[in-house]
Amino acid sequence: MRPPAFRFYVDNFVEGTADMTDAEAGLYVRLLCAQWSRGFLPNDDAELLRFSRGSTGVQPQVLDLTRIKKKFQVGNDGNLRNPRLEIEREKAKKFSKLQSLKGLASGKKRQPGFNRGSTPVEPSVSVSYSLERGSAVERPSLKEVLAKAEILGLATWKAEDWFHEMQGCGWLDHAHRVIVDWGEVLIRVRKKWEADGRPPSPPAARNGAAGPVKVFPEVQLKEIERQIAEHPCNSESLSRVRNPTELQRASYTALKAKRDALRKTIAEAPSK
Asked: Contacts for 4-12 with beta carbons within 8 Å, 24 or more apart?
């Protein structure tokens, strides 16, 4: 079933259509709606201009499609699609499927004889804003992550550990990019967990460790320098962004301060 609606990011739209006339921007919106409904657009200018109707004061044949068509890509089937809109379509499908599976699981728990109480069917996903301007990002609750992990076959301890790690770092990945689709990341976590032999418990519990493992300053410094090299605020980084957010700038400053402190610690340490 096709999702009935898609998210419209106002800031992105205003910025991305700044060089368009009102008529061109209006046609662009109509084309996005048509793609959402049909799944594609014909790569034919005459067909695209047919979507321009209404009293805009501009005749369809006068409209310049050059700026509008830059927003679309030609697929293997020869049709046009806006890539961002297709990403939103997949996100909507995945979210709908997850909610359906949660509903089935909740219904099962409510059956007579199942002594684990009822669970809410309504989604408890919180919505925040990503580091990319205007992009809304869904942050799941621990209960949702555990429910997804059960579906994927991922160990509960691993899913819970990952959730708390994401909470602690503001739902950013190792390159300080926002986590847009947490379900896809959790699939990757499961693959790594399986590659490690599907451990049933955390390393400390398996090894009988009495406390945290000591990490030498030199090792810490190497990791911090790696993060700085890959940080989007670093002018030499491949992940560099033109207009970093306050959160990105703050994390970059914190990393450099930690690097300097580690260097001082190493320099002042007594030689062996």
From this structure: 6/32, 6/36, 6/85, 6/88, 6/89, 6/92, 7/88, 7/136, 9/134, 9/135, 9/136, 10/134, 11/133, 11/134, 12/133, 12/134, 12/135
